[in-house]
Amino acid sequence: MTATVPPNSPTPRIPDNGRGPAELAPGDIPADSRFVNEDLLPVPLARRRWTTYNFAALWVGMAHNIPSWMLASGLVALGMDWKQAVLTIALANVIVLVPMLLTGHAGPKYGIPFPVLARASFGLRGANLPAMIRAAVACAWFGIQTWIGGQGIFVLLGKIFGGWADAARIGGQPWTLWVCFLLFWALELAIIHRGMEALRRFENWAAPFVIVGALVLLVWVAVKAGGFGPLLDQPSALGWGADFWPVFFPSLMGMIAFWATLSLNIPDFTRFGAGQRAQVWGQTLGLPTTMTLFALLSVFVTSGSQVVYGAALWDPVQLAARTDNVFGLLFALVTVLVATISVNIAANVVSPAYDLANLAPKLVDFRTGALVTGVVGVLIMPWKLTETPELYIFTWLGLVGGMLGTVAGILIADYWLVRRTVLHLPDLYRRGGRYWYRGGWNPAAVVAFLVGGVLAVGGSHSAPGKGPFPEDGLIPVLKPLADYGWAVGLAASGALRGADGPPGHRHRGHAPG
């Protein structure tokens, strides 16, 4: 990746007084500091130039992907009707937007990525705890998205050339599917290798392209169907009574968890923002609106497929494969490629690349971190995580949401309540400063994380034969909290960290905070 701060550049000093954007001056950080490399340094003010459109395009590009298209299908499979499914998705994205904007504030103001922001609350060494949790989640998501994208390529190329599904099997899958998966994996890493500016340019044109592709699919199905059909008239299997709420709340937490990852590491992107207005308006216009409209679009297209083919085809790749038009198949193939790459690189490679660089700044740079992400994303066997809606929504997304909500609560409370958005940039990179605490760890943040994490995920449970957890929960007394993991983790850890009060003198030097 292009260096964030060119070596020996004569950067003018911007006062670090908490009132406006700040950047480092030469000499602020010892050259031999083990807590810095060029990718972790603040972005200079001159290079913070992402606009409202750039942030909105980022979200449009990330929201328009196959897994988010299929979120509504997962909820319908659990018994909701289309209105309940779309409402759940819309509400979840309005809720998750709030922590997204709160953590994103530090980006334009200080130009720092997520793991450096986490140093203020967890300590220079302690920041590796939330960073590695976020990196592990991102690696898993990267694998899931790459597997789904590889499947899309496999299906569409198989339709064009024929015979792919009949190839010899390796590990239970045709070898041609593995080839598509690995080629797609390599293409993603090749793009991110070019750095964040290349990603910004890619997202700018990917967003409108994917929108056009989705609308083309809608028009195509509508023409073949002569209108939209039975799916929109199907009643909910749950109703709005006692059967609905036990499904709604864990589903809502699962939908929040879909983007809870980005609510942590959004400073990785907002650090390039031209100002707070750009990140606030860009994200507000891009996230909840796009996800809601995309859910509606998936419902309408699936409804049309019910009329045309007699079965609801929730997977857009399977639907596009029904056409015999070679041009249509190629267009669908390119759309799937662009849609999956745009979300996977932005959401699931950028963050762990920074997080791994934070773990060992002198050994790992952005490019190395991205490569490690790609390798781990394959090793977690993503094809297993997406086998059933119960495993995907309740177990995977629910557990992830609880842990990420806990970290988000600490970051938000520390930045907004404890520090009143005032950070001292040089001390984020040097031993012995105000963020060193005790040996590089902040005991207050660690305690808040442990308490919030146990409350959020301690009651995790699975139906018999449906998941890895005991039926009565890991900690039975906490089972009632499990369906609200993200909210419980956010509130509990945030309350504990916020109760610590303004930093004052006790946050200086080695004092605990």
UniProtKB/TrEMBL annotation:
Transmembrane segments: 55-78, 84-102, 175-193, 205-223, 243-264, 285-309, 329-354, 366-385, 391-418, 439-461
UniProt membrane topology term: Multi-pass membrane protein
InterPro entries named in the record: NCS1 (IPR012681), Pur-cyt_permease (IPR001248), Uracil/uridine/allantoin_perm (IPR045225)
Keywords, comma-separated and alphabetical: Membrane, Transmembrane, Transmembrane helix
Chain spans, region Disordered: 1-28
A Pfam family that the UniProt record links to this protein: Transp_cyt_pur
Location (main, coarse): membrane
Protein's cellular compartments: Membrane
Family as reported in the entry's similarity comment: Belongs to the purine-cytosine permease (2.A.39) family.
Classification via NCBIfam families: ncs1 (TIGR00800)
Designated name of the protein: NCS1 family nucleobase:cation symporter-1
Record organism: Streptomyces coeruleoprunus
